[in-house]
Amino acid sequence: MSRLLTDEEITRQLADLPGWRRDGDTLRSSYSSPSFAAAIEFVRLVAVDADQMDHHPDIEISYTTVRWTLSTHSEGGITQLDIELAHRIGEAAESTGSTTSG
Ligand SMILES: C[C@H](O)[C@H](O)[C@H]1CNC2=NC(N)=NC(=O)C2=N1
């Protein structure tokens, strides 16, 4: 349903996604949350979106740092679903006081 994006499509859309970078066939970001509880709430909000989208991130939680890796496994790379999920992660970050941390 969602095809692989071209290099140009990825680069152009990353311009609207502060804190996100391409790493091969994935999109990655790292966020810092104000507390461990806030980090867990950040992840919980994204979990609701991910189930609604039926599109799921890889997540690494290390105390107040949350690292996200997005790719569309069924296509073997980056699709519009990954871009959409990255935007939703940005919204959940704002709701929980989480900021990009490289
Ligand atoms: C059956 C179900 O729709 C698939 O397994 C979905 C679930 N979530 C998914 N998430 C991601 N990131 N990639 C997928 O290919 C994918 N497939």
UniProtKB/TrEMBL annotation:
Enzyme Commission number, as recorded: 4.2.1.96
GO molecular function, one term: 4-alpha-hydroxytetrahydrobiopterin dehydratase activity
InterPro entries, sorted: PCD_sf, Pterin_deHydtase
Example GO BP: tetrahydrobiopterin biosynthetic process
Record SUPFAM superfamilies: PCD-like
Catalyzed reaction equations: (4aS,6R)-4a-hydroxy-L-erythro-5,6,7,8-tetrahydrobiopterin = (6R)-L-erythro-6,7-dihydrobiopterin + H2O
PANTHER family hit by this protein: PTERIN-4-ALPHA-CARBINOLAMINE DEHYDRATASE
Protein name: Putative pterin-4-alpha-carbinolamine dehydratase
